[in-house]
Amino acid sequence: MVSTGPVARYAERMHHLIGSGHHIASPLGAWLLLALVGPAATGRTRTELEEVLGADADRAAATARTLLDAPHPLVASASALWERTATDALAEWRAALPKSTETGPLPEQAALDAWARERTMGMIEKFPLTVEPDTLLVMATALATRITWASPFQVASADALGPGSTWAGELRRVLRTPWHGHTCWIAGTARAGDVAVHAAQAKPETVDGRAAGLLVVSVAALPEVPASDVLAAAHEVAINATTFPGRGRRSLYDLPLGETPLWTLREEQTRAFGREERLSAVLPCWTAESRHDLTTKGLGFDRAVGALGELMGAPGLGYEAAQAATARYGRYGFEAAAVTALAAVTGLPPEAVVRVADLRFGHPYAVVAVATDTRDGLPAGPWHGVPVYSAWVARPEELPEADLADRPDLLS
């Protein structure tokens, strides 16, 4: 299991800079991208990037490789590096990226949009950045989840949100926890005080004898608590729920009876063995779509592009960084996706005279087909370099009529 502390601390940093407006984000997606760049950094740039990552650069990169090369069955993940021209200066760093990282020439915008759609189950329609003529390279991560609740919610009147909720007058129906399958509790936190907590489990998937699941945890604090503190508390509560069950939970018998903006606590006469506690919850459906500018100082992307620029011998590169995110929380399930992208840009070169050659094979010529067999760019087997077929082309043929029409399934 990897350490969750650095990601949780980065999440607090990112949400603080985003603000308290309605939004969805994936701090993990941004952190993964920075972690992949980390080993490229040296000197002061590395120190500053490690401060943002909350971990040693090499350790953070190892964590990113672990997560991306062994993705969770319920969280699709992807990473990519595209370069206008592959540079030797980046070769060592590029070779250390996760095996699953896609690499290659910088594609057109339509191809980037298609990558975003394909890696997010269609939830992100557009790549968050636009490729320009001066774009040197683009890095991206993608995360996507679409799950069904193990136990669907019931439906309740919005009045159940309580007389103090403005949402009660805006909505007609909300979600109520089913009789079983969800978990509710009150937790004591250092940042947000006592908070109301609801957790719903996804239907798990069994892989190699292991049950892979997803726990979606909702945390509410008193209205006057700053959003940044509630988000920080929510990360703490959610991590505890999966790794230290019971930590921070308050007994209902230690809390005063009565009404608060977060709950109603009462006593009922019934049959029970001992001091039994029963909790339920009501919460609304919600959706969110967000685009976050990640060039804000403090998020680390300026340090990341600085590291790449130093590695290429091109300090002072310009850059763009952004994240597109979306989520939907409903009666039967939850879905969310995010694409995080970093683009390094350089000034356009000055106009100059260049030479251009158009090669023509207009008379007999030779063709040789050679086998290749490599691993990490190095020869890896006896077939590597073996010429398998050779030809002398002296009788050209007309293009067949059947090949005149475009074949979209073959064009790429």
TrEMBL record:
This is Serpin (Serine protease inhibitor). Residues 22-156 form the Serpin domain. Pfam families: Serpin. InterPro entries: Serpin_dom (IPR023796), Serpin_sf (IPR036186), Serpin_sf_1 (IPR042178). It comes from Micromonospora avicenniae. Gene3D superfamilies: Antithrombin, subunit I, domain 2. The lineage of its organism: Bacteria, Bacillati, Actinomycetota, Actinomycetes, Micromonosporales. It comes from the Bacteria.
